[in-house]
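Continuing from yesterday's entry. The apo prediction looked reasonable, so today I'm repeating it with zinc ion included to see how the binding region is handled. Same sequence as before; SMILES copied from the compound registry.
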Amino acid sequence: MSISVREFELLNDNLFSITWNDNHQSYLLLRDIRNACPCATCKAALKGFKKKIEVKNPECFELISVEIMGSYALKFKWGDGHDTGIYSFESLLALECKKD
Ligand SMILES: [Zn+2]
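Holo prediction written out below.
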């Protein structure tokens, strides 16, 4: 069975939750999601990490909207207007954190 998203929800300023089609629920930190942005711009910035450490503004981690892309990914829009990151369901599962 391939994974898909049943529902997702912003729980608070830091925490996002995804319920998968197998009823597994994942909790993800917005900061982790943004830092793992898979778009070309962010990947290039990450490659240059050793040369220049970019300090992100708090609005970078503010979630504006989430859109389902077909049957394989979610697209996040952030407070700084960044919305080119398309996260496959697998990559989101990998960002799951433990909620205490
Ligand atoms: Zn990006």
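Comparison notes:
- The domain at 5-94 is CATH 3.30.2020.30 (NE0471 N-terminal domain-like).
- The pocket of zinc ion is lined by residues 37, 39, 41-42, 82, 84-85 (CB under 6 Å).
Will overlay with the apo model tomorrow.
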